Amino acid sequence: MRPNRRTHGLVLAGSSVVLALSTLIAGPAAAKPVDPAEVEDAYHRAEVVNEQVNMIDERLASTKQEITDLNADIAEQNKRYNAQKEELSALIVQQHMDAPLGPTVSLLGSKDPTEFLEGLGAVQALSSSQAEQLAKFSELSDQLKARRSQLADREAALEDDTANIEKKRAEVEELHEAAKKLFSQMSTREQAKFMDSDTDLNFEVEAFGRTKQAIDFAISQLGDPYVYGGTGPNSWDCSGLVMKAFAAAGVSLPRVVGPQMSAVRSVSMDALQPGDLVAYGDMSHIGIYLGRGKVIHAPRPGRSVEIHGVGGYSRAGRVG
Questions:
Q1: 36-184 belongs to CATH 1.10.287.1490
Q2: Interval 124-148: pLDDT, tens
Q3: Number of Cβ within a 10 Å radius of residue 302
Q4: Among positive and negative, which fits the CA dihedral 170, 175, 180, 185?
Q5: pLDDT-derived band of residue 83, with 50, 70 and 90 as boundaries?
Q6: So where are the chain's domains?
Q7: What is the mean pLDDT of residues 246-264?
């Protein structure tokens, strides 16, 4: 028996309706959950470049100071150069006025041997004095040229770094936006968990002297927000917090993670003591060890200065 075409068509149509309804009921395919580690890594990439910005910023400040010092040095050398030049010129002019044909000509007609020898000695002394002045003048001239060349180099470096820092800042912003986009794809519960900062210190830190002063300063910043390039007083990045904490204890540390770790004595992660600096292996992040496996640090945008576990840190250094 042949199938009824109309009936068959209705069956197919009905199947299509059922499929369409089931799709509407189920809704669109669920988006793939965002791994918090992926978001953390995105923020970390921005922090890596932020430390590069900090490094260039420090270099800019140093270069500007070098240029100021060089300009002052060149101005002082110019004064000495012009004074020596005038003195040497006057000496040469006076010599030619006294003896237009040369200082030895007036001695040639002398019939007194003693007068001749005394005059010759005076001429030799004058020539020796001129030679010494010429040597000093030449040395000062070379120094002045070297300073001017050095100034030109520093000005070129300043120009390059000024252009580069703007590119790096734009890169930080781009990476930060990418991280925020990933964050926005997380569930509300995951977002809340991801942004939570532990600002409670539930044990007494065993530290003394300058180390305790530095730790106390850092602890007093708990809850302050993270800001790229922040060095206080109310917002921080990781290296800015470390620098200012130890500055409060009278210890001068560089501004950037890498130089900070180079400025302290390396210690094993197994031998950590409160007040030791702990850093990531790529020198992109740093904190201060408190003891009991805890670190105080400024983590990343959206979070505040917090207490965190020592996991993830692989380098350690001790101040003093």
A1: yes
A2: 555 566 667 777 778 888 888 999 9
A3: 16
A4: positive
A5: confident
A6: 36-184, 197-318
A7: 97
